[in-house]
Structures are given as C-alpha cells and as structure tokens.
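@channel anyone free to eyeball this complex?
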Amino acid sequence: MPEEITRLTHKYLRHDKKFPHIWCPGCGNGIVLGSLIRAIDRSGLHKDDVVLVSGIGCSGRMTVYADFNTLHTTHGRALTFATGIKLAKNSLHVIVIMGDGDATAIGGNHFIHAARRNMDLTAIIINNQIYGMTGGQQSPTTPYGSMTTTTPYGHIENAFSISELAMVAGASFVGRGTVFHVQLLDSLIERAIQKKGFSVVEILSNCHVQFGRRNKMGSPVKMMKWFQEHAVTMQKAKQMNTEDLEGNVTIGVLTDSDKPSYLEKYQLVQEQAKASLKK
Amino acid sequence: MIENDYRNEIRFCGSGGQGIIMAAIVLAEAAGVYDGKYVCQTQSYGPEARGGTCKADVVISSKEIDYPKASRPTLLVAMNQASCDKYFLDLNPKGLLIVDTTYVKKVPTGRVAALPFTRIARQETGNTMAANMVALGAFGHLYKNVTAKSLEDALMARVPKGTEEVNLLALRAGMDAAKHLDLCALPQLVREEEV
Amino acid sequence: MNRTGAKRKNILLMQGNEAIVEGALAAGCRFFAGYPITPASEISEGMSIRLPQMDGTFIQMEDEIASIGAVIGASLAGVKSMTATSGPGFSLMQENIGFACMAEVPCVIVNVMRGGPSTGLPTHPSQGDVMQARWGTHGDHPIIVLAVSTVRDSFEITVEAFNLSEKYRVPVIILSDEAVAHTRETVTMPSPEEIKIIDRIKPEMPPEWYIPYEVTSTGVPPMAVFGEGYPYHITGLSHDVRGFPTQRPDETDELIRRLYRKITQGFHEIQKIKSFMMGDAEIAVIAYGSVTRSARQAVLDVRQLGIRAGLLQLVTLFPFPRESVETVLNQCRAVLVPEMNLGQISREVKRVNQKDTRVTTYNRVDGQLITPEEIYSQLIQMK
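replying in thread with the prediction:
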C-alpha cells in the first residue's frame, strides 16, 4: 500500500513544483484529488490524454497540483472552456472540477446546458455548501437556516440539489458520494470518466473552517461523522419512506443511461454536411 | 431610358414579407456578378419579420462605390402605400416611380410606371409571393443597365430551391407587362416645383 | 461595358458578415461558438453551414460568456477559433477576453457594432464600442483591434486578424458595424495560394525542457497544444514562466511587461493604415470603419474645388497607429475625425497631437451613417 501511494504520487502529482498546497488541514479537497487520481489510474488513461479543467475557488486550485494538461479558468466558466477543448479535440478526456458556487451559481447556466446537450465531459462537483475561499458566504447549496458570513441571521433560501438538477437537465450519468465514503467515490469517478456524454459526480465535502465552524461542526471529524450518519445508499433509500429520508442524502449511482452524446450526434452532422457538398 | 451617370441609385420598398430584399439582392447579383458592375446592396428594417416598412437599396456604378446607400434614388419601386408615401420624397425629381397598383391606390406623381404586380403574380403564377419578381421584371425592362439574361441567371442562383420556376415565370410576366408602358408620354419630372 | 451576362469566375455577391465567415475559413478557422444577436447572427448562421463541411465544429452556446469560453478552450486544443457578437454580447465576453490576454490564447472576436448603450439600436450602425474594444476587460492588457470598412476588406482583415492573433498569441477584436455587416458587395475571392497564413509557433524542444511562458526575444513563447506531449498549466492568475500561480512582485512585473512588449515590438507589422490622396494634403480626414467610405467620396468632391484634402484610414485602431497619425498631424493644418460616436478615436488623435494642429470632430449617434455631404461641408469650413 505505501508503495502504491508513492507510485501514484510520483506519477500524477506535481510534487516537485507546487507543494505544499493551499488547502486547510483536514480539507476534503485532498481526498477528492486522491480519488480522482486513483480513478484515472484505474481507467488506464494516458496522462497526456487527460485535460483537467477547473474554475475559481478552493477546488479551482486542484489543477495546479495534478500533472496533466491543466487549465484554471474563470469563475463559473470551466464547463464552457472544457466544451471547446472537447469539441476541438475528441481524443482528449476532459474532466472538469468545480465547486458548488462555481457550478450552480455563477456557472449554473453552463451546467444545465452542458447536461442538456449531453456534452462529452466529466463534471466533478465538490459541494461544501459554502464559498470557502472568499470567506464563508452562502452558496446555492447552503442548507436552509445555516449561518454564513452573508446570512448573519440565518439562511432564508432553499438549497439546490446538484444531482437532481443534473438528472432532469439530461446528464447521462449522475453519482453522488461524500469524502467519507472514499471507496464509493473512487468507483463513481471511474464510472463517470468511462461514460460517454455528460457525467456528473457530486461530492459532499467538508469545509469545517468556513461552514462547520459557524454551524456547530467546527472540526473535520464532526463533519465526517455527519456524512457517516446522514448518507444513505440507494439500496437502503428504496426501502425507506419520504419522512425517514428527510434530512439525509442518498449516495451511489443516481442515474446511468445510454443515450447518444453530443459528439456522436455532431459527427453525423459533419457527415451530412460533407455529403451535401458532393451533390 | 434612364441614367448613364456612373452612379445609379435604386430603391425597393414595401412591407416586410413582400420579398423586397430578395428583389434587391437579385438585381445586385445580376448587375455585379453577371454584368460586371460595381454594386452595393443595403437594407433597413425594423424588428418585424413580417409587416412594418422595409426598404432595400441598390447602388450600381461603373466605379468603386464609396457611400453604400441610396440617398436620392432615381428609381423607386413601391410595393405598398405606406412605403410609397414614406420614400416618395427621397426620389430624384428626374427619376421614375414604379408602383404595384394592387396596393398603391394613391399615386403621388404622374411620372409613374403603374402596374398591378401582385395581381399579375396571382394570375400568371398562382402565387402572390412572386409579386416581387414581377416587379423586378418590369423594373428590368425599364432600367437598361442590367440585362434580362443576367436577371434570370441571378434569380435562378438566389431564390430558394424549388421556387425557381414560379419566380422565373413571374420575372418574365413583369418584363412583358412593362412592354406596354410608354414612358415618353409621362411628365418629364416627378415634382415640378423642386427644379 | 460587360454585357455578356456570363457569370464571372470567383466573384461573389456577399454581405460583410458572410465575408467574415469566408475570411475566417480561409485563415484556417475550424471552430466557432456563438450566441444569436443582431446584427451579427449571419456569421453564426454561415459558420453552422460551412464548418461541418470542412470537419470543423460550430456550436451555439447558451450565452456569449460561454461562447468565448468555448473559443478559448478550442484554441488551447490547437484549433483556430472565433466568435462573433454585437455590443451587449461583447460586454458579456469581457472577462474571458482578459483571460485570453493573460494566458496568451490566440482567438478572434468579431463585434458588429450597433447603436448603444444597453440594447440601443439593434438594426442600426454605430462606432460606440471602440474604447470598449481597447479597454473592455479589467487590468492592464495588450490587445489588437482592427476595423473593417467594406465587404472586400472584411475578408482580408479577418485573415489578417487570425494571422496576428496566432503570431502574437493575443486576442484580436474585429470591429465591424451594421452598415458593413449587412451591405452586399461583389468580392473577388482569392485562391488559397494567394492567402498568406500564419500559424502559432509550437515547442520543438524535448517536453522536459519546455518552459511555457519563457521570456523570448520576440516576447512570444512557443505554444503547446493539449495532447501533444507537453502537459502544462494555464491560468488567469499571475503566473511564473512555468505557468504556475505566483504573487512574487518580480515575476508579476516581468509577465505584464512582457505581454505589452510583445505587441510593442510588433508595431511596424500590426499597425495598418491606408492613405488616400495624402501626398499634398493640407487638411485631412482620419476615419475608420464604414465612415471611411463617405470620407473618400468627400475628399474626392472637395478636391474638385481645389481644396487639398486627404484621408488617413485607420485599419488598426489599437495599438493606436501613433506614428502615422503624428505624421498627418505634422503635415496638415487641420484634421477632421468623423465618427459614429461622440468622440472616441478623436481623443486618441488629440492625445498624440503635439503641435497646435486643429483637430475637429464630427459625430453622429442617431444610428445613421455619416454621409459624404456632411464630411464635405465640414471640410469646406476647415479650408
């Protein structure tokens, strides 16, 4: 096991250039990066065929640390850059790392449209329910009633469910995990990478510094415990009624369908267009 | 008749959906691509795709064209009353007004080539949509700086696929109708007072 | 007079917007992302037909922010890319245009100007976005802005825009306006051999030696393409020569100054102007875009009266062709700057006016083209 960790570290991290990282001790982002690297390794992808795209925020810094083609874009726009890359060069595997604010507030429009098009991208959304880097402001996934630096009297808005949003918008694969359930996370990301079309993995993660501290979960352990106690697998959720599910989150594969991806359909457009020239 | 000046300004006007811009494009294509003149074709329109007033200008010249729009058109083709009223005062006093009498009932000058383009289109082609090509055919007969063959070729190249026959029929019907007009019998000026 | 009626070879009647499409394709553009907006939509429509015919890709995105994002992404994957919009959409694109400046990503952005501010006059021409094209995105940044004036030069200048963008790794803005965009004129299409095409320089050293933002003599580092063996990091943050974020003052200063230097060193090639009857001119018009057309006519007309007038057409608006403008200011007693705005390039002309040459402005903001007669009467007054 230690040899395996050393091998992955040396192969996939820019260990000689860019560490130590900027994340707080105990942050879930490192766990996600670990899962991502294991999933890519297991998928057998060549490093140079992978493009890692991120937006702005703590999650956005992940592209600095991983040794692929990496692109750190503007806030909320990672999916748009990724769309351009994928359409221009189909041979690349384009994986997009976003935070909850990045993907569903400023980038919410891009997110639903990438899903609607079933664009051939993998979106990994780290949902820590807060704007961490800017100092703990409310995000679209901040739970009702929570305390944040811009909801000093308690949050009065309802939260988005990122996964459900992705499902109804048309993503072909949607999985949800947490940074506590790491083996599940590894497999969700691996399946998402291998899926054609738009695949989404929503990862509940801990920001104990900005979210937890203001909401009675000021340590990583307390937040991990919350994930442990409130995460319900899909199988178990099916046997529960709506009332019992209230306040819990389901984890696992939420949807997995085989529908034509954007690129598959656009290739047909190209063939049709070329045929029209010959007439 | 008309203009051996190096710069000829022509305007088509009517309501959106009457094919005003298409008529101008076919003329520009005929004069520019087939007859080898310099041409500039512009249009102005509002937000409506149908209705509203619409105008399309064509400038035809033997020299390179600087200002692209028609500021004092010598030929004004008006396909409805509102646009005829609106643009008549722009017409060069020595120019000629051409109107579709199907829709233009109040003709503001005696110096006019008046023909029922829409009615001719309905009678000859069964399709009132081809009125613009009837008007262009009549115009082409009166305006000697473009050849009939070029107009026909340009029409075939520009109108939507599947409508070539109807439009060509309309163009020729317009040319024929204009043959009965006697421009020499018209007053010399559009508006006496302006000269 | 040619009355043969035979179709002439390689001559096409097309709109300014269509000429931009053809110019882009001739320059090697194979990716376009856009969002519908009057008066630029014909560029999207043309691309949606033409690109898939040549194994390129067209996509209509959800907004203009997404369009420019996709364009930058495609360029990073090695494909020449373009988007087109008008004022409102151009405003939305500004943040990502800044990204392209900072990360040095070649791309071409067409802004077909319409009356503004805000929704303004969607179907009427304007030149109100000149300063926005230069300074629209935040922070000190270099950028190239070219202005088209006819359908014919819409083709040529679009090719040039791609060439400059590739060579200098900088976004190039093409300013058109509703009048040029929707005017149809005949264009003689050049054959592919007649078109000079410049491609970005790619790294040739072994990957481990590649320094993505290396300081080179031209100021333009070679650009690796994703998936060709040179994985590296690209960011809009201040970055060191390896592309990684830095806050070090020395590295930040060097980066920003190099971004400027690469353009400054190329002034002679980037700053394009056209002189018309300037040889013996005592008064001059400095114009750009569709106003140039009226200015040419007016110069010809006042010359009939014996007035020695000339025209300096600015094809490159930014970097501002200071040297050429200074020459005209030194040569002439008086200069007229007619614009379809309330004075944007005229501010630049006044800024570089070191003598007491009289600089007169003539402005229209009513959505109408400035006519030759208007410029004519201005020139008569300046006599």
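from a first look: Strands of chain B lie at 7-16, 38-44, 51-61, 75-78, 96-100, 112-115.
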